[in-house]
Design brief:
The structure is a homotrimer. Chain A contains 14 helices and 2 strands; from the N terminus they run ααββαααααααααααα. The first copy, chain A, has helices at residues 6-33, 39-66, 92-113, 120-143, 147-150, 159-177, 198-217, 226-255, 260-275, 283-306, 315-333, 354-382, 389-394, 396-401; strands spanning 86-87, 90-91. In chain A, helix 1 (6-33) packs parallel to helix 3, helix 4 (120-143) packs antiparallel against helix 12 (354-382) and helix 9 packs across helix 10. The longest helix of chain A is centred in the middle third of the chain and has 30 residues, at 226-255.
């Protein structure tokens, strides 16, 4: 047990609350991108999943993720019992807060992809299970001393561990739920279902970007290497800027006009892409990583449409596809000379070659695909994943919560 | 006069600006929970009360609260004249900023409870008086070296000093104003008057929770005890999470569906409840405190309806009732072994038993009830508390400010 | 090259991300103050201009602003090549991030003044050019070792360098674009075109004020003088509070009712006014500076109407007029005894008399007026500044982006 460093603690607490605030960003983005009749439902899901994540990570998640260095799972510290003192230079409570906020992020990514048609009670069950068990297992493998950390698989702030996990869960969920009524025509061609409040989406993306500085730079777990923290900050600026501009240009070329939603998702794509490599690439590489992410996210949306998978907010392309890209980018652009630090506790430095990165992606996302498939299947059997057709048509706000998100406003909704 | 500690200063400035940002949270929550025809008015009240609070606390409040250790009031430092150097390890300007932001919070709690029917000019008068005189007196008693601090009454971040004061002022005000037109039927049964913009409410609660980390953890007034700050952070996460889930379940059981507004208020209830004891309870106790707060807030809303007191946003249950609960929880769950620090300047450590906590609550809230009763009575006599009936029907935005908060939108409003 | 100071780095990174977050504030203020049919367009402009600013400042701006101490421009460090190590006690990447966020602020001020009628592609060209070249030249003169810094022209956080530059560019742009259709009658009298979403405006101003603490207090470039940082914080609280109250009273006297938009702009006016002198004036002076700013902003709006210049959000009075006022206030209220620090790298301390301050204002804003006049003229010739009449009537959202910012909502729009 080392001494507590007050400056490191301040930094990590600040970062943790920035990551916490990202919940507000997700909530606004998702609510704005769907129809008003379901806005309250998705806000409720975004709010309550953080609450469940906090308790689930307190009761089970922390122990699984950080309770010992076994290859597969940790096994100590349920309810934080017996967990005290420090983790590195941090009081354990500060470290817990930062990690719990991460668990909340992984959980909340899914709500958007399954929006406008998933039962609330089923969502609650899902969000508890991913925060308590599934995310922590992957987290243990990479950051908690598990087998992937032994192989030097490297994911600084969670392109795979957080965003890949959330994105893969979103893909499985959106696929199992099926598309919203009216989303695809009989011939398979997609219809656009417009979001109802674009200013909400915009402030949500600003909040996410703002919080992402905590997500990435806080993953240094302190200020002992201030130059590294500053490098993370510049990369977390340039990659999303490049991603947004790229996605905007793509939308202009492919669809005829510069599209705001695509541009905003381009910024998020750049952020997800730079999350894994942010500490070990130069500023030029971060721009390149952002550009590729901006391209990927647009083709990802197109690809999902082809597969007739309905992801109302683009969670799968943003978090899943660009999470994979960011993790692989470590193996392509990572510079050992930059020090290759890690936020893993039991990680000795250095990072793996492209093959190791690919192995880690496949292992983590494969695990999530299988376990989330089982989880969603089980929830479907017990509670039912999808709301009844009439509820979907009327809107989940009314049937599931007895509310109207915009009381008094005259609103026409499709279908 | 001690040396300035730069790290402590940074932490307290950061905390102060998080508390400042809570003003935005209050504004959004209150605006969203009322009808659109009064949204601009309540935004104006929330914005301007911070401005008045800043000046009032500069001119009068700081001197009353911190200008000497008399048992009842301080008497030095009007306009900060003669106030210089340091308070503990902080430049006095940093300490002032943190305290002024607190004064603004106490003031702004009331605007929601009196929304949709109180004259703007009267609200300005109220907000000046509470920030200049009433809040600072209570603050002096507890944190400024006054008689309650001598008795070891303990309120780490202000369950009573800030939230109890605001909640009691809100109760007196809402009671004196009377309910909105149409809120209660002739037989006494309540009608629901729905809020007009639930996404605003949601982002507001996220902002409040985000800012609350500054409110609670900043009350350590520095980073010298980093473990304490981290403990505050984990408790400020778990209590609202437990409060939100509890209130949601309560709404489900009592009203048939999981209600978003009640869930959000449950989180705020948990935050208010953990505010006093956050530094001296363990994480398990914080969850229990949050659960009780989540129950209290729901029954508080029901109780106000029975009393035919109209509190459009639930300020009285959230801040008043849970403020009392949090203060008493110190006497129930407080662990001396955790060090019992205090943010009071002249406070020697340790905390009182339940009886002392109860005495403090009664004294502080009794003082507020009496003085605010006089203040509101006097304002009513001179300026009139309530807008004319026609103004209330048309909306305060139009008559009091000549504005339309949603120009162009087609909106039906009740009554 | 000095040692990196981790505490200073943390502070500047925190400040930088607060300044980054101001982008969200600008976006919300501008979107809310215009009609819904153009909301998406102005959000897009606000979002993408930061992205362009980040890349432009990376490629060209930083080199021009900080690449050597020539009197007119710097010439080293394009793409940050060869720029490494530290700036003062900061890693260069942290310093870059803070400065890039400032460049983004200068750029984004203009979008509001030119809202509802400027082509998107032309706005992109403009935003790249101001961030790459025009802002950095002025920045070099004052903060980068250029000729004005040699003369001891003093602008602590950018009343002139950022807000004056943005406000002057906004004036030139709004004047060259001409007013919106229907904004002025044939007899020259103005019509009010109401903003469509006042809650957005309010949260935007709260975000701006919140971020401004980073803008001003971060300009200390570290925590080595914690008393100075705290002084900046108190002044950044009192000046906007005084500005808001003053502007509110002005609106009450001049127009009959306390106006929310004017009140909010009064706070921004106070913030712009205190930006230059915040480190070297006492708290009493900051209140006075805020009061004058609150008066100026109201008369500025009236004056623009007289000149038939259409500035939909009041960017010119807020940023331009109050930017000038704040810079001159240095010469009037600045106290050398307070230490007269500077955030300029090559600046020896002390500040100029009123004459020097006036010279600096004239030189900087004259340079901007001339160069921006040429830029806008050139863009107009090549791309066209203004959208076609039909596009303006239908709304820029539909024609320029193929979107509807509030899908489903029933909205009537003027003209």
């Amino acid at each position: 047990m080392t001494e507590i460093n007050a400056l490191d603690t301040l930094w990590v607490l600040l970062a943790a609350l920035l990551v916490f605030f990202m919940q507000a960003g997700f909530a606004m983005v998702e609510a704005g991108l769907i129809r008003s009749k379901n806005a309250g439902n998705v806000l409720m899901k975004n709010f309550i999943d953080f609450c469940f994540a906090a308790l689930a990570f307190y009761i089970f998640g922390y122990a699984i993720m950080f309770g010992g260095t076994g290859p597969i799972v940790g096994t100590e510290g349920w309810f934080l019992f017996g967990v005290q003192g420090t983790v590195g230079s941090l009081p354990v409570e500060a470290f817990w807060f930062f990690q719990a906020a991460f668990a909340g992020t992984a959980a909340t990514i899914v709500s958007g992809a399954m929006a406008e048609r998933m039962r609330f009670v089923s969502y609650m069950a899902y969000s508890f299970l991913i925060s308590a068990f599934i995310y922590p297992v992957v987290g243990h493998w990479v950051w908690g001393g598990g087998w992937l950390s032994t192989l030097k698989f490297y994911d600084f702030a969670g392109s795979t561990v957080v965003h890949g996990v959330g994105g893969m869960a979103a893909l499985i969920g959106a696929w199992m739920l099926g598309p919203r009524i009216g989303r695809f025509n009989k011939d398979g061609s997609p219809n656009v279902i417009s979001g109802h409040n674009i200013p909400l989406v915009t402030i949500g993306v600003f909040i996410l970007w703002f919080g992402w500085y905590g997500f990435n730079a806080g993953s240094a777990l302190g200020m002992s290497d201030a130059a590294l923290v500053a490098r993370v900050a510049i990369n977390t600026t340039l990659a999303p800027a490049a991603g947004a501009i790229t996605a905007m240009l793509m939308s202009w070329v492919l669809f005829g006009k510069p599209d705001l939603s695509i541009t905003l998702n381009g910024a998020l794509a750049g952020l997800v892409g730079i999350t894994a490599p942010c500490a070990i690439v130069g500023s030029g590489a971060s721009i390149f990583i952002g550009i590729i992410a901006g391209i990927l996210v647009v083709y990802g949306v197109i690809g999902l449409n082809k597969l007739k998978i309905d992801d109302p907010v683009g969670a799968v392309p943003v978090h899943g596809l660009c999470g994979i890209w960011g993790t692989l980018a470590v193996g392509i652009f990572g510079q050992a000379a930059l020090g290759a630090p890690s936020n893993g506790l039991f990680y000795g430095g250095g990072f793996g070659p492209l093959g190791t990165q690919l192995l880690g992606v496949v292992a983590c996302l494969g695990f999530v695909a299988v376990t989330m498939g089982i989880v969603f299947k089980a929830i479907d059997a017990v509670l039912g994943l999808r709301v009844p057709r009439e509820t979907e048509l009327r809107g989940l706000d009314l049937d599931e919560h007895g509310m109207d998100s915009y009381s008094g406003f005259q609103i026409f909704t499709t279908e």
